[in-house]
Design a protein that fits this description.
With 244 residues, the chain is an alpha/beta fold. It is 40% helix and 16% strand. The protein has one domain: Alpha-Beta Barrel (TIM Barrel). Strands 1-2-3-4-5-6-7-8 form an eight-stranded parallel β-barrel, surrounded by four helices. The longest helix has 19 residues. The structure holds phosphoenolpyruvate (PEP). InterPro entries: Aldolase_TIM, TIM_sf, TrioseP_Isoase_bac/euk, Triosephosphate_isomerase, Triosephosphate_isomerase_AS.
């Protein structure tokens, strides 16, 4: 049985006052679904120090443990600050920082070595969908971004169509179901049925309180990776509630 997961990606948003918002999410995080918030790196330690019944994650990590990499953060540092998860391969990282599947794979290995679970993001652009290449793109990203050694504990896969992120556009439930079923089948083939069935699959892209329940009813959707609507407790609480 896969535990549902409501994951929030705060991106480059959040000064220390945002910890009040996090504290307001705390009580709802004690339900059936697991709750994960990935604040900016500056807030990982203070967020974890609140001791709320929710997990804290980073939004990226370097592939190396330590060294001359100005501005980067290692998986070990995130772990040391209290994180238990890290988002990897988000489309904004792939686009803004020229991250490719092989980088994501190396980062994923580093995250696992440090004891973090990885939320690995995959998703097609609008032109790739319009060219009917969605499943090929997803297959390539999964094959390239995931190292050997995945388990239901160390890996979560987030399907995030690039064209749905921050746009208010959402694929229809058949499209979401098609991709999630496809990802599940690929994971079973690569890692074996037991592991493939235990990895949680999240949908991400313009999830809001008003569409969450419909999306969560789709087969193989085990929760959501939420950007904008995870910043405020008033928006995120009903999404968590829809999973409970
Ligand atoms: C995201 O950035 O991971 C995301 C899904 O953003 P939004 O929910 O704002 O579309």
């Amino acid at each position: 049985m896969r535990r549902k997961l409501a994951a929030g990606n705060w991106k480059m948003n959040g000064l220390s006052a945002a910890l009040d918002e996090l504290a307001a999410m705390g009580p709802a995080a004690d339900g059936k679904a697991e709750v994960l918030i990935c604040p900016p790196a500056t807030l990982v330690a203070p967020a974890a120090a609140l001791g709320l019944p929710l997990a804290i994650g980073g939004q990226d990590c370097h592939a190396k443990d330590a060294g001359a990499h100005t501005g980067d953060i290692s998986a070990a540092m995130l772990k040391d600050a209290g994180a238990t998860y890290v988002i990897l391969g988000h489309s904004e990282r792939r686009a803004d920082h020229d991250e490719h599947d092989e980088h994501v794979r190396e980062k994923c290995r580093a995250a696992w070595d440090a004891g973090l679970a990885a939320v690995v993001c995959v998703g097609e652009t609008l032109s790739e969908r319009e060219a009917q290449n969605t499943l090929d793109i997803i297959a390539g990203q999964l094959a390239g971004s995931l190292p050997d050694g995945a388990t239901g504990h160390n890996l979560v896969v987030a399907y995030e169509p690039v064209w749905a992120i921050g746009t208010g556009k959402v694929p229809d439930v058949d499209q979401i179901g098609e991709v999630h079923d496809f990802i599940r089948a690929r994971l079973e083939k690569r890692f074996g049925e037991g592991v493939g069935r235990s990895v949680r699959l999240l949908y991400g892209g313009s999830v809001k309180p008003g569409n969450a329940a419909e999306i969560f009813a789709v087969s193989n959707v085990d929760g959501a990776l939420v950007g904008g609507a995870s910043l405020r407790a008033d928006d995120f609480l009903p999404i968590i509630e829809a999973l409970n």
